[in-house]
Specification:
By secondary structure, the chain is an all-alpha fold. It is built from three helices and no strands. The protein has helices at residues 2-43, 46-58, 64-85.
Length: 86
């Protein structure tokens, strides 16, 4: 009986460690996405923000040309950062 109990405890401890690591990774990813979201909000024009809010209310998907326009500006600060290190 003690052997079964110790085996189960070991398995539970292993699972807890795996879950702790997953939680840590998800927290890091969430933080990164929040930073990216804040950057995109600062780079978006008031018209783009208003259109996005309207799309959220109606439930329609965002236009592809709009989303491409908002994904390009964050690449520029990243390239500026790599340019200053060289």
């Amino acid at each position: 009986m003690d052997l079964v109990k110790s085996h189960l405890m070991y398995a539970v401890r292993e699972e807890v460690e795996v879950l702790k690591e997953q939680i840590k990774e998800l927290i890091e990813k969430n933080s990164q996405l929040e930073q990216e979201n804040n950057l995109l909000k600062t780079l978006a024009s008031p018209e783009q923000l208003a259109q996005f809010q309207a799309q959220l209310q109606t439930g329609s998907p965002p236009a592809t040309t709009q989303s491409q326009g908002t994904t390009q500006p964050p690449a520029q600060p990243a390239s500026q950062g790599s340019g200053s290190t060289a």
